[in-house]
Amino acid sequence: MKSERRSLPMVALRGMTIMPEMIVHFDVSRQRSIAAIQEAMVEDQKIFMVTQKDIETENPKKEDLFEVGTVGTIKQIIKLPKHIVRVLVSGETRGILSTIEYEDPYMRAEVDVIDESDITIPEDLNGQAMERGLKDMFVDFAAKNGKMSKEAVAQVLEIQGLKKLVDEIAANTPLYYTDLQEILNETDFWKRYEALAFKLVNEVQIMDIKEEIQMKVKERVDKHQREYILREQLKLIREELGEDTTISDAEEFEKAAKALKAPKEVKEKLEKEIGRFKSSLNSPAESGVIRTYIETLLEMPWNKAVKDSNNIEFAQKVLDEDHYGLNQVKERILEFLAVRSLTKKGESPILCLAGPPGTGKTSIAKSLARALKKPYVRISLGGVRDEAEIRGHRKTYVGAMPGRIASAMKTAGAKNPIMLLDEIDKVSTDYKGDTFSALLEVLDSEQNSKFRDHYLEVPLDLSEVLFITTANTLQTIPRPLLDRMEVIEVSSYTENEKLHIAVEHLIPKQLDKHGLKPEQLTFSKHAIWKMARNYTKEAGVRQLEREIGNVCRKAAKEILTTQKKGIAVTEKNIHKYLGKEKYTYQMVNATDEVGIVRGLAWTSVGGDTLQIEVNVMPGSGDIMLTGQLGDVMKESAQTGISYIRSVSREYQIADDFFEKHDIHVHIPEGAVPKDGPSAGITMATAMISAITGHKVRADLAMTGEVTLRGRVLPIGGLKEKLLAAKNAGIKTVLIPKENVADVEELSSEITKGLEILPAEHMNEVLKTALLAEDGQEDRRDI
């Protein structure tokens, strides 16, 4: 590729690029450009045309122009009105702007005119493939573009030779001037070919995408237009027939709004929304949202209340029929009824029934609704983590709906129902909001008279709702929320209570469920006790009911296959229906032993006993704790050791004993995690027994936490622990002195047959637990 430097008149083009092989006309209005054209005509009609970078520049300098332009020949000049000249130019070859010689009266530049006559294109298969590929791209572009005549396309396709083909396609393709400039800038032929091919393919893809988008838009517009026309026709037909349902709906809403018993604020909101509904007749989407909102407001029980039943005798009868025990809950409900009967009003209490699973917390709410003759709604809060579940979604969201509280009120159809918030301790919180905080407004008697649901947008009065919440544990409920509720502990059932519940409720229910008559299947008292003790391990009666159902199924099959008239389930044949025993109680040890003490534990399914074993062996003063103990129990063991070392001289323990011996504390059933602040005195007693060699009473169990100074601290779950001790055949139980008040609240059924000894200090524990060598209790005279 060669070049020749020439001095030529120059025209700066705005918004267009002229390519070699291109014949084009353009209008010139700037005086310097007109003068340059006239000078070119005086000379040899040659002119250099280069494109401005910015079309707004009036007097461009060299830096305002692209470097590569086109040298062409002026074919024709036509003068137009208003000092405009139209020029017909034929582009011939590329030129590179070197310098601008001068700018007035016209622009003249030194140009390196490029001679491309020496470019050779190989006539092998590669060259033919490139030529055919470029023609195919050009045909695709021309077909998609639609602005090129068939003659022009055919003329291009007849061209032979890759170089001429590239120049002709670049000259005849209607690309944007900046795209043409990019091709013009490529003085290397092979890069020019690649740039042109890329532009053609890119333009075809852009046009495909544009066409696809236009088709989708057209389809959507056509669909909406068609729906609009059909809707207008249908509207006109209905008007002619006098069946305009939309107007009828608006009138029905107005009529219902007038008849609705609701606060003034609700009435005003309804009138406003009905007006919006009328004005949105031509927008089905908007009118549908407004219609749903109006219907929701009309269905809410704003001032609609059911009359309370103040018959305390009837309520007492219903509660006793449905539930055995739960005396504290029943007493609180009857107190509420008595106050309501005397005052004719009164705030509804917010009760929280807390206790193990299967103890009747959920079903008591249903019985209460029957006793008070009120509507009953249940909301399960287990796993709820979105605040909108409580407060509702705002109307602006797609699929918006009221929250669970407002929906439950609508379902109840009254402003004073019984609402059960089940599993409130299993509510969770995430980035969507704090659900517990939303419940604060619901369960606060000072705030819930003006509860705001985001969907309703008007205050909802919850002050007359009788809220009952249930929880298995109070530990996961935030303190501010717990403070707003009256907590009633629902404790584990005793075996006698389970017997009564089974006889009065569970067995009749399962017999009816399995199609059996009472005379076809009977259970002995001892069989029920055995089921409760050896086939279930729970605080409630849910598993017991399943086992009774299991017996009923097997009995039904036996009656049908053997034609028996009746089956009696006793303690001796119960294994025939339920298989081998699933649970066994670790009964009291037969003999007094050294380093073995029976502790008492509370679990979520009731109470249990733990046998703590301690061994002392020669070593270097290490303490080993095994049995999968939690941090609290490990700290209790460390505290017990410290206490023992502080009183070692009183028990004639050698000063260097702890440096020369290892102590191993183990709690059997190592696969079960154990933790809690109530095994301190048990571990301390077992360790001092192992160290001194004195036996511990086998018929004794104990519970309590110990301090460094030997004080015995109070514990929880006393009822369950005493039941576990009684089931294990233990006669004497040591408890902290501060728990004596808890013993007084327990029924005689639990405490009967147990000697319960209070202890305030480890001295009292050890005097009772440790035996002297003659078999009598230790009196500190070792």
Automatic annotation (TrEMBL):
SUPFAM superfamilies: P-loop containing nucleoside triphosphate hydrolases, PUA domain-like, Ribosomal protein S5 domain 2-like. It is found in: Cytoplasm. PROSITE patterns: LON_N (PS51787), LON_PROTEOLYTIC (PS51786), LON_SER (PS01046). Keywords: ATP-binding, Cytoplasm, Hydrolase, Nucleotide-binding, Protease, Serine protease, Stress response. GO terms for molecular function: ATP binding; ATP hydrolysis activity; ATP-dependent peptidase activity; sequence-specific DNA binding; serine-type endopeptidase activity. Gene3D superfamilies: 1.10.8.60, 1.20.5.5270, 1.20.58.1480, 3.30.230.10, LON domain-like, P-loop containing nucleotide triphosphate hydrolases. Its EC number is 3.4.21.53. Its main location: cytoplasm. It is an enzyme of class 3 (hydrolase). ATP binds at residues 355-362. Residues 591-772 form the Lon proteolytic domain. Pfam families: AAA (PF00004), Lon_C (PF05362), Lon_lid (PF22667), LON_substr_bdg (PF02190). The keyword Aminoacyl-tRNA synthetase does not apply. It catalyses: Hydrolysis of proteins in presence of ATP. Induction: By heat shock. Residues 8-204 form the Lon N-terminal domain. Homohexamer. Organized in a ring with a central cavity. HAMAP family: lon_bact. ATP-dependent serine protease that mediates the selective degradation of mutant and abnormal proteins as well as certain short-lived regulatory proteins. Required for cellular homeostasis and for survival from DNA damage and developmental changes induced by stress. Degrades polypeptides processively to yield small peptide fragments that are 5 to 10 amino acids long. Binds to DNA in a double-stranded, site-specific manner. Belongs to the peptidase S16 family. This is Lon protease. It comes from Faecalicatena orotica.
